[in-house]
Amino acid sequence: MLFEEGKAILQTLPESLSYLVIGSFGLQLVLPAALAGRPPADIDLLLPDDPEVVGRLVQFMAEQGFSCQSWSDVVTAQTPTSVYVGRNYVRFVRGPILIDATYHNPYYSFAEAWQLRQEVDRIHVASPRHTAHLMKVRGLPKDMERVRLVARLTNDPQLLDIPTLGSDSGKK
C-alpha cells in the first residue's frame, strides 16, 4: 500500500467521524522510527463502540468506492446498524488499499485514547503509547518488536509491563 494514498484517504474522512488511526500506519504518522524502515501494509482504525458510527463510516467508504465487509458478510450503506453489534470490525478494500476498523475492544477505552490523540495533517492518530498498548495486548511477534521500539523511542519502559491476551494479568 502506498503511504501517501492511504494518508489522502484518511484526510477525506468526515470531520464529524470519531476514529483513531492505530497500528503501524498510526506509528508511521507520529513515530516513524518505530517501524524500523518497514512501511505499513494496511490502515487500522479504532472507532467508538457505537453501531451508528460504524454505519456512517461504511456509508462514507462505500461512496468512495471501497468494498465493505464485516467478517465474510458484505455490508453496504443500507445495512441496518444493528448488524454491527458484536462483530468487532469492518474491513474496507479498494485496489491495494486495505483498511480495518475495530469498534469493540474490551482491552482498551476509545474515550481514553481519544483524549490523548494527536492530530497529523487533519488525521486523528492514537498516541504512540496507546498504539503500543493495543499491539502489546494482541501479542503478535511483529507487534512485540514494535512495542519494544516505541518503549525505547518514547522512554516509556512501562509499556513492556502491559499484559498480552494470553497472560494471567488481566486487563490494564
What descriptive keywords fit this protein?
globular; 6-stranded mixed sheet; 6 helices; single chain; 172 residues
Please outline the helices and strands.
Blueprint: H1 3-11, E1 20-22, H2 23-30, E2 43-46, H3 51-63, E3 67-70, E4 73-74, E5 89-94, E6 97-102, H4 110-115, E7 118-120, E8 123-125, H5 128-138, H6 141-153
Parallel strand pairs: 2-6
Antiparallel strand pairs: 1-2, 3-4, 3-5, 5-6, 7-8
Helix pairs in contact: 2-5, 5-6
Walk me through what this model shows.
This is Nucleotidyltransferase family protein. The model is unreliable at 167-172 (pLDDT under 50). The chain has one domain: Beta Polymerase, domain 2 (2-Layer Sandwich), CATH 3.30.460. The protein contains 6 helices and 8 strands. Strand 5 (89-94) and strand 6 form a beta hairpin. By secondary structure, it is of the alpha+beta class. 33% of the residues are buried. The strands form 2 sheets. Strands 1-2-6-5-3-4 form a 6-stranded mixed beta sheet. Strands 7-8 form a two-stranded antiparallel sheet. The longest helix has 13 residues, at 51-63. It has helices at 3-11, 23-30, 51-63, 110-115, 128-138, 141-153, and strands spanning 20-22, 43-46, 67-70, 73-74, 89-94, 97-102, 118-120, 123-125.
